[in-house]
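ok trying again, last paste got cut off:
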Amino acid sequence: MRFSDRVQAGRRLAAELQQHHFGDAVVIGLPRGGVPVAYEVALKLGLPLDITVVRKLGVPFQHELGLGAIGEGGVRVLNDRVVQQARIDAEHIAAITDRERITLERQARRFRAGRASVRLDGRTAIVVDDGIATGATARAACQAVRARGANRIVLATPVAPAGLGEVVRADADDVICLRESARFFAVGEFYRHFDQVPDERVTELLERAGARERQHPVEQPVVDVGPQHRDDDVSIPSGTTRLAGHLHVPERARGLVLFAHGSGSSRHSPRNRHVAAALNANELGTLLVDLLTVEEETDRGNVFDIRLLANRLTDVTNWLRTAPETSQLPIGYFGASTGAAAALWAAGAPDSPVAAVVSRGGRPDLAIPRLALVRAPTLLIVGGADEVVLHLNRIAKSHLRCENRLEIVPEATHLFEEPGALEAVSWLAVDWFTVHFVPAQAGRD
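nice, full thing came through this time. structure:
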């Protein structure tokens, strides 16, 4: 699992944290890199955002190697193993600590810009960083937060070395990490974009979060489909044929994704159902539908009749636009194999309402005559070991004129059966649809 940037990592972490109950909680970001992640968590969970400033104590002449860390309130944590290996005596440690303490206090004043800290007495503190390496900084942060009165501390991070819970068990009550890796060298290796976060960005996000709390703003606009969500089988007309499907609409859906499966699969595909479950957990509705009847599938010519499949997909889309539960929802397509070609062919129609398209191990090359007409932002996901399909996707990508991206899941084969591969597909799809279903992303900020 690699994150595109800290914003995406924060949204994924927030989705995981939503599965837990924290009661009266405060999100605590670690400046600088942890604050953009923490901001997304606080935004999604509707919680206040604050910071606790920590500073790494670097080994002289090798500053990147941390011998410990300090936090606000006089907290200091040392890594005894590093101290012994580097042969650093107490006098040198004290000098390093004093120097970093001055910087810490200056940063704390700059970041808070006169704003008071959020009260933590008796509350749960969710301490968030963009990644954890040795654990010294995380431990210092937890201790500093505990000193401010928090009665429960949850340490949350996108990435960390394996065994993180054992390292911080004396300082954190719970640990939530999206990925613990046995081969861990640096936090940045788990991000495609890992630029340094400026001080100004930290203060901007804190002010933005504070303004929301003061103004009690309305949540991000969503379409309310009524108090009852829908989760049942449906029969959809398409000409003289009726197509079988399963519709799931969460109570407060932000959009709906229509699945077009490939040859040899059906609406019962465990892979598509896995992705659909991830979308549902993130307030996105899904419709898994068979574009061919059982009798029609016996003719292999129908399976590769992209125009027929695209026409059926258009009929299903029109049905969604008239159904009471879905008529106001933005619609996206998720296609696999030949289903991806059908999705892109349908999306290339002049009156297509589709807001975004995702292809998983798809054959978009079969829709080349229509690709230049597609206006919906398109994400192509291919396994790194699926060399033939990867080549075909690269060809198809060159024909697209809309916003598009090719994501390669390392070492994954065509069916994404490798450990973690389908999870990567799910998160990529969630992110793509979530972003492109919001008409004006700036409205969130």
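cool. The longest helix spans residues 90-112. The radius of gyration is 25 Å.
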